[in-house]
Amino acid sequence: WLEAIKSKNYPDFKEAFYKGNAEFFNFTYEKTRADWVTCVSVLKDWRVLDIGAGMGNMAFVLSELAGEVYTLDKSWLRARFVHERIKKEGKENIWVAVGDALALPFPDNTFDMVSGNGLFEWLGVTDKFANPTDAQLHFLKEVKRVLKPGGYVYVGIENRVGAPLFFGGIDHSGLQYTSLMPRKMADWYTKRKTGKAYQMYTYTRAGYEKHFKSAGLVDIEFFLPLPGYNL
């Protein structure tokens, strides 16, 4: 799709994209994925960071509300796609960066808001920390560092004991029931089935609240999006 967006005019590209993969197209362009912004009064002078920006879905919605939007993704190809999309749509307030969410390449007290949608559970897939919880806590501290005093953080993620998981829903491990297991059991089971460690940690509401408070983030609110945070 990167080569297509570069070579085609934009309407033709979007038509081909939709016909080629409607689900992925909607994942990229469907604005309702960013409906969480209704929970925050985003101001025109805000500087916002979207971490794990992917194909730019959140960033383009945020660019209609905030003054400056910065995207960060570890994939050069996804970042390049966002860059090409910026040119096609004539956006002048979105900037693209490639980097590690565990080492944010920004100064302290830079952003009024930081968002991470479908990102937190994947932070533990790293060899930089002894366990996934340490990596996730470090990430929250990094977010706190780049956030201005009084700023906002948004995290979209599943509940470890969400109802669908009891009925055979697939966990981020690619297997059933692993989020419901004790961590050591999930690790043993995942290694047995896939050959890989279980590092995609999710938590209960109480678990998330504990991590946020440990990172110095306060005034925590929880919301239940239906049918899910990606829709």
Care to describe what's here?
- It is a single chain.
- The protein is α/β, with parallel strands linked by helices.
- The protein has 9 helices and 5 strands.
- It has helices spanning 2-7, 10-20, 22-29, 57-62, 76-89, 132-146, 163-166, 183-194, 205-214, and strands spanning 47-51, 68-73, 94-98, 111-117, 147-156.
- The protein has a 5-stranded parallel sheet.
- α5 (76-89) links the parallel β2 (68-73) and β3.
- α2 (10-20) crosses α3 (22-29).
- It is globular and about 50 Å long.
- The mean pLDDT is 96.
Structure summarized in a few sentences:
The protein has nine helices and five strands.
What's the total count of β strands?
A: 5
Task: List unreliable stretches of 5+ residues.
Answer: none
The residue fraction in helices comes out at 25-40%
The total of helices stands at 9
Question: What would you call the shape?
Answer: globular
Strand ordering within the main sheet: 3-2-1-4-5
Query: What value does the Rg take, in angstroms?
Result: 18 Å
Percent range for β-strand residues: 5-15%
